[in-house]
Amino acid sequence: MGSKTTTKDIITLRGSAAIVSEFFGYAANSILYNRGVYPEESFVKVKKYGLSMLLTQDETVKSFITNLNAQLSEWLESGKLQRIVLVIMSKATSEVLERWNFSIETDKEVVEKGVSREKSDKEIMREIQAIMKQIISSITYLPCLEEPCVFDVLAYTDNDVEVPFTWVESDPKLIENPQMVKLHSFDTKIHKVNTMVSYKNDEWNEE
Fold it and tell me: Of the candidates 35, 28, 36, 11, which has an alpha carbon nearest to the alpha carbon of residue 69?
């Protein structure tokens, strides 16, 4: 009888928070690149998740995403983050054109009791890779953004969270009668991230 050796990777709360916040940083970069919010030449290629990913070299955006990731890690570790939304708006009118929605389910037992979970890094990477591929191919199903755009990030947290002074309360920046595309999800066994993009579609609204 042959024997089979398998290993499981132990996932801690801190490790899971780091995976999710890092994922969001790369996802945000990929969305900003693929949706043409910043010029192509302001990005450099890096290898991540077994894919060619693009990272902005714009110092303002870099610093924004770095600070954002640090804050997300903190909220994820305390189990207080419910969702993150990256919003793309018209620069001229501030009209919301796209909402990239990352909703987060947290295993409360891990937060409260400090237990860990098991899941292989490879499996998590495969799930993240599937989402990244969908973001990269978004150009095939989303309407062209034909005007200069800007982006913003909304965080939905539990009510008892102390909000850092660098964050301000915001309206949800919703789109009226949006089209929606559900993307893949990934699960570290501590945080599950469900991804969806909703977008304004004039052709649809005119029918």
Answer: 28
Low-confidence ranges of the chain (pLDDT < 70): 1-8, 165, 203-207
Residue pLDDT, tens place only, 150-205: 999 999 998 887 777 677 777 888 999 999 999 999 999 999 999 999 998 775 44
> Treating both helix axes as pointing N-terminal to C-terminal, what angle do 13-34 and 121-136 enclose, rounded to 10 degrees?
20
Whole-number Å distance between alpha carbons of 65 and 186: 21
- Which are the contacts of 96, defined by CB distance < 8 A and separation ≥ 6? 87, 88, 89, 173, 174, 175, 200
Token duo for residue 176? 């009226």
Q: Which CATH superfamily is domain 10-160+172-206 in?
A: HORMA domain (3.30.900.10)
DSSP letter string, 38-97: S-GGGEEEEEETTEEEEEE--HHHHHHHHHHHHHHHHHHHTT-EEEEEEEEEETTT--EE
Phi-psi region of 8 (alpha: psi -120 to 50; beta: other; left: phi over 0): beta
